[in-house]
Amino acid sequence: MTTTDTHQQTRILVQAAAQACEDKKGEDTRILELDPIDAGLSDFFLVTSATNDRQAVAIADEIEHKLKKEFGVMPNSVEGRRQGGWVLLDYVDFVVHVFLAERRAFYDIERLRKSARPITPAEFDAELKADLTAKTQAVREKAAAKKKSAAVKTAPAAKTRETAAPKAPAKAPAAKKAVKRTVVKKTAVKKTELKKASKKAVATGV
After folding, report:
1. Cα(105)–Cα(192) distance, rounded to whole angstroms?
2. I need a labelling partner for 123 at 20 to 30 A (CA). Which of 12, 48, 90, 170 fits?
3. What is the dihedral of CA 164, 165, 169, 171, to 10 degrees?
4. Is the pTM of this model over 0.90?
5. Which CATH number belongs to the domain containing residue 83 in this structure?
6. pLDDT tens across 116-126, in order?
7. Domain membership of residue 17 as a residue range
8. What are phi and psi of 155, to 5 degrees?
9. Quick check: is 162 in a domain?
């Protein structure tokens, strides 16, 4: 899988996790696309808020369940599930932070990541769909170009066969030779007849 494909797969997982947040009534859900400088840390942060510890754990559980069921992906590590005030799910290429509202305000990781690009789930979903559409179009154009190239390569061969067919009249020279042999044969017959006539004339004294 190429780097581009891997990044695209990560975006799909983040989008699914964001949807799980929405399903469990997470509030003010945001996706932070991290600056390439932070690429060693992760590609995305998904941040959402819960009104109480129980909801925070429910949101984290829903994310984990959804990604495991639909994509076969498990978090590399989970922290804070027992406390519920800040549950962190580390999927390596992206990290999910489920906060209680007051904890989120206190730590304010969105402010700490000033270089990150904040995106709403709706915006992220629209970008993802646009990327997938562009990728599908590129694949179709590539397939069409390949098909056209194959057609061009086979065309000369067909043309060669078409131009080769008219070579049948090449037998004409043979026919011409046959006519020539016939003329020669007739000439020889006439000469033979003349010789016979001449001998006959000498024999009869005519």
Report:
1. 129
2. 90
3. 80
4. no
5. 3.30.460.10
6. 888 888 888 88
7. 3-134
8. -60, -50
9. no
